[in-house]
Amino acid sequence: MKFCWCTITVNDLDASIKFYQEIVGLSVTRRFSAGGGTEIAFLGDSGTEVELLYNPKAKAPGVIEGISLGFEVDSVDKMIDFVQSKGIKVVSGPTQPNPHVKFFFVKDPNGVSIQFVEHM
Q1: Do residues 69 and 26 touch, judged by C-beta distance below 8 A?
Q2: What distance in Å separates the CA atoms of residue 109 and residue 98, rounded to the nearest whole number?
Q3: pLDDT tens-digit series, residues 2-35
Q4: How many folded domains does the chain comprise?
Q5: Peptide bond into 94 cis (omega under 30)
Q6: Which residues span the domain enclosing 75?
Q7: Phi-psi region of 42 (alpha: psi -120 to 50; beta: other; left: phi over 0)
Q8: CA 71 to CA 20: how far, in whole Å?
Q9: Domain CATH code at residue 66
Q10: b/e per residue, 43-73, with b = 16+ CB within 10 A?
Q11: Residue 98, number of CB atoms within 10 A of its CB
């Protein structure tokens, strides 16, 4: 079995695409209308994708606790500088629970926790 994607319901598809492209570094692999005003965009570069789902009749759930999406970075320190330069608040960390890993969290435009992790 292969994990294919994670779906996030969004209030603003363009703002969400911008976050995942500019901050996370994912590319749009496909974007299409699904009828009834619903739009879908898939982003990803290495197999597993993030699916962004905009439906004008469905409101995104807001701050989502207990779920995060993790993305590996070369340097947590450089990534913190980068996200802060874009006006994005670090909500937790940086944390280094052992000598081999360091990470921190931000929120995407939909309230989803995004973890940036450095394996050392």
Answers
A1: no
A2: 30
A3: 888 999 999 999 999 999 999 999 999 999 999 8
A4: 1
A5: yes
A6: 5-119
A7: beta
A8: 11
A9: 3.10.180.10
A10: bbeeeebbbbbbbeeeebeeebeeeeeebeb
A11: 7
Residue ranges of the chain whose pLDDT lies below 70? 60-63
Distance, CA of 19 to CA of 23 (rounded, Å): 5
User: b/e map of 82-97 (b: 16 or more CB within 10 Å)?
Assistant: ebeeeebeeeebeeee
| SS percent in the chain: helix, strand, coil, step 5 | 20, 45, 35
Laid out side by side, the sheet with 92-98 consists of 68-72, 113-119, 101-107, 92-98
**Who's near 59: CB < 8 A, 6+ residues apart?**
9, 11
According to DSSP, residue 36 is labeled: T
